[in-house]
Amino acid sequence: MNFLCLTILSTLALIFPVPSSSGDVSCDKSCPKWEVYSRCAGPNQPNCFHRHASTDESQCIPGCVCTRGMIRDPNTFKCISEHKCPNPVNNPKWCPSNEVYSDCSAGCQRTCDTLNAVFKCRCIPGCICRDGYVRSQITNQCVPIKSCKGCPKGYKRNPETGNCEFQCNECPKNEEYKDCGSHCEPDCFPRGIACILSCKQGCFCKTGYVRGPQNGTCIPKEKCPKCPANESFSCGNPLCEKTCDNYKEPCTIQNIRCEDKCYCNDGFVRNKNNVCVPVSECDENDC
């Protein structure tokens, strides 16, 4: 007996016609992009507004479901990444996966690098990472604390809390222990970035030494590397650095973690010899 297998997405439910008689259903197992075939798709699949929806075994019907990490968009009914879910107009306190709404904590959010930091922040409502999660500085999504890589020297991660905790007062060469040191320790290339007001305990460079750019060890300040002429050290997008070949084109590459290095000063671009030259010199070479 032939049976008709249809999958119709309507509003927030999935409608599956049931065969008129008992027997195995034979149907096309091909699915749209970001979907896979399942013997138990059912009418209650997770979507942006109902993330924990599930199908009772008694309602199991073969069909297509979103692949892992994807979820139904309530507007298009296509499978999308969870962090791309729309913010419903009628629910301003809706938050993405692994986040919760807070009336006054969104101004300062912990990251893998600031697990133990004590912030002095403005009261701002918004979404924050739920317990056990921190915000990724790369994707801006909330990730498990356990996924954070390593701890600073002199610290060890507590397996119960996931926090980096100071272990001892023995410090590497050219460093000394302080009960109350700055979160913004001097390095070879000061950036003028706002610093957390509170102090922290740990190992810090001794007087006359600063953090080097290569491996983070403390080196004499006079041994800091210097940028070539017409360049300055900063944290920028290495994929958008201007050259004589591309300086007239806007860079569309975004969401790239900034990289500490020497970049051309304003009004200068790199030529074919990797030297920063005035933009006017590029035009002269084109003539």
Named at the architecture level, the CATH assignment of the largest domain is: Ribbon
Main sheet: which strands, in order across?
A: 1-2
Q: Please report the number of helical segments.
A: 1
CATH class of the largest domain: Mainly Beta
Order of helices and strands: EEEEEEEEEEEEEEEEEEEEH
Tell the overall outline.
extended
Q: How much helicity do the residues have?
A: under 10%
Could you explain the architecture of this structure?
The protein contains one helix and 20 strands. It has 287 residues and is an all-beta fold. It has four domains: 1-86, Laminin, CATH 2.10.25.10; 90-167, Ribbon (Laminin), CATH 2.10.25; 171-223, Laminin, CATH 2.10.25.10; 231-286, Laminin (Ribbon), CATH 2.10.25. Strands 1-2 form a two-stranded antiparallel sheet. It has a two-stranded antiparallel sheet with strand order 3-4. The chain has a two-stranded antiparallel ribbon with strand order 5-6. Strand 15 (209-211) and strand 16 form a beta hairpin. Residues 1-26 have low confidence and may be disordered. Residues 1-23 form the signal peptide. Residues 31-85, 95-148, 171-224, 227-282 form the TIL domain. Keywords: Disulfide bond, Protease inhibitor, Signal.
